[in-house]
Amino acid sequence: MRQNVTRIKKYHRTLYILEFKRSSDKNEDFLRVKKNEANEQHKSIIEALRAAAPEWTFEPINFVAGRRGAVVENDFYNKLEKFNIQARKRDKILVAHVQRICEAHDTAMRSYYQQIHGSSGADATTSMENIGEQVYV
Question: String of b and e for 108-135 (b: at least 16 CB within 10 Å)?
Fold first, then answer.
């Protein structure tokens, strides 16, 4: 098991364990389900860290995105607050986060399409119309 990222606040003796998860956003409860799943995954490592450094606090922070790019804004912003990110920068970070999710989804779909249709590996965008920066239909 590996954590995606860790963030340390030395003066507060807090270590945040960041996890980025994808989930089916068809289910209204997708955020809670993935949060519980991630917490269960990190349970043993957090217990070991607490035993090794009882004066520290270890807190998992789970960022969850739906497969269709859904991100629950208030949940995302609440997590950014823990890092003292200024309110005016949060929207920009959210937009970048959602863009990366959509790009990853696009890459997966292109790979699937190429595998199913026996593409020779050429760029899948050549037969598509470019409607914007890195956006093809």
Answer: eebeeeeeeeeeeeeebeeeeeeeeeee
Angle, CA of 97, 136 and 23, to the nearest 5°? 40
Q: d(Cα 29, Cα 101) in Å, to the nearest integer?
A: 19
Task: Write out pLDDT tens, residues 17-36.
Answer: 888 888 776 666 778 888 88
| Rg for the chain, CA atoms, rounded | 19
CA gap 83, 64 in Å, rounded: 17
Reduce the DSSP state of residue 131 to 3 states and report it.
Answer: strand
* CA distances from residue 128 to 16, 30, 31, 33, 101 in whole angstroms, order as listed: 42, 33, 34, 37, 21
Handedness of CA 97, 102, 104, 105 (dihedral sign): positive
> CA–CA separation, 89 vs 98, rounded Å?
15
The predicted model scores a pTM of 0.64
How far is Cα of residue 101 from the mean position of the Cα atoms in its chain? 8
**What are the backbone dihedrals phi and psi of residue 134, each rounded to the nearest 5 degrees, phi first?**
55, 30
